[in-house]
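Inverse folding, one chain.
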């Protein structure tokens, strides 16, 4: 074991995993808000109708979805401030301390992206198009996934699994990078679909219809194609990673990757069967974050002994 490695700090570990669980709730609230098209329930930001307790938010679904998302996100921001401070005080590993502050930076950026999505919306600025608001909404969705993935990696650095990690083969390191990149690309395509409201569902999907949109044209058709067919490539790369993980004795990670991939594919197909059910699409988004985070942790563990990720 590396002499510089600590035995583990329980406070930092529980802070990170607590924030990770809270981040999943924030993502669920945000995903549901998008699924029911409630992102502009309030036209102002950071307050909601000028208040932290706006009238109607506990009785009207769209207002509840949006305001609860904002409140939960504020709580996550405070948690990440605590994480950054605690790592600055207690963590001896330079790269881990840096990661804690990067997480805080991403959370701050996430809040700003959400605010710009509201303030630059067509309902606030007028005009015929809504490109700026949609662009910030897409960035908001993708950054949420990246933030949770990095937070998961930070949490992993406080586990015994991290301290006891063995060097991975070059094939496993390469497979982990490819699976992560391909899954992230599919998530970006999905964010483009959702935020542009260009999801073209098929009520009675055929085998080809599951992956090739049967309707639509232009960018909407391409967003759907990239998301659905891209999922085939990402799924194959992820399965290959799971096989290599199991082959090199990392059976727990292999099982987690395979299980999350199976669940995600099932939710995607179920979404085609239940196009008007916002809960299926919301869980699909949350599961994507869980899968991406597991892939991020797998990649970091696979590169554990490489010089660029060695603890300082």
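Residues assigned per position:
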């Amino acid at each position: 074991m590396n002499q510089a490695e600590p035995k583990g700090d329980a406070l930092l570990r529980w802070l990170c995993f607590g924030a990770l669980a809270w981040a999943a709730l924030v993502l669920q609230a945000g995903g549901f808000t998008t699924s029911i098209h409630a992102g502009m329930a309030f036209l102002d930001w950071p307050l909601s109708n000028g208040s932290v307790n706006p009238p109607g938010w506990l009785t009207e679904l769209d207002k509840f979805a949006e305001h609860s998302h904002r409140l939960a996100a504020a709580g996550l921001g405070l948690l990440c401030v605590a994480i950054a401070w605690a790592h600055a005080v207690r963590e001896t590993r330079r790269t881990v301390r840096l990661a804690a502050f990067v997480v805080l930076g991403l959370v701050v950026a996430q809040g700003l992206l959400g605010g710009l999505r509201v303030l630059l919306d067509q309902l606030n600025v007028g005009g015929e198009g809504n490109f700026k608001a949609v662009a910030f909404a897409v960035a908001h969705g993708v950054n949420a996934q990246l933030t949770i993935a990095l937070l998961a990696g930070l949490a992993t650095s406080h586990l015994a699994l991290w301290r006891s990690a063995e060097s991975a083969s070059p094939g496993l390191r390469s497979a982990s990078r490819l699976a992560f990149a391909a899954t992230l690309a599919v998530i970006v395509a999905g964010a483009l679909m959702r935020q542009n409201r260009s999801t073209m569902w098929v009520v009675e999907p055929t085998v080809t219809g599951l992956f090739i949109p049967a309707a639509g044209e232009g960018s909407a058709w391409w967003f759907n194609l990239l998301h659905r067919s891209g999922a085939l490539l990402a799924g194959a790369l992820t399965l290959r990673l799971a096989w290599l993980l199991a082959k090199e004795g990392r059976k727990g990670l292999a099982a987690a990757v395979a299980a999350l991939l199976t669940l995600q594919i099932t939710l995607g197909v179920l979404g085609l069967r239940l196009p008007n059910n916002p809960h299926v699409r919301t869980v699909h988004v949350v599961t994507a974050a869980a899968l991406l985070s597991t892939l991020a942790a797998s990649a970091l563990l696979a590169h554990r002994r490489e010089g660029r990720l060695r603890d300082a």
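The chain is about 70% helix and 0% strand. Residues 1-6, 306-310 have pLDDT under 50 and may be disordered.
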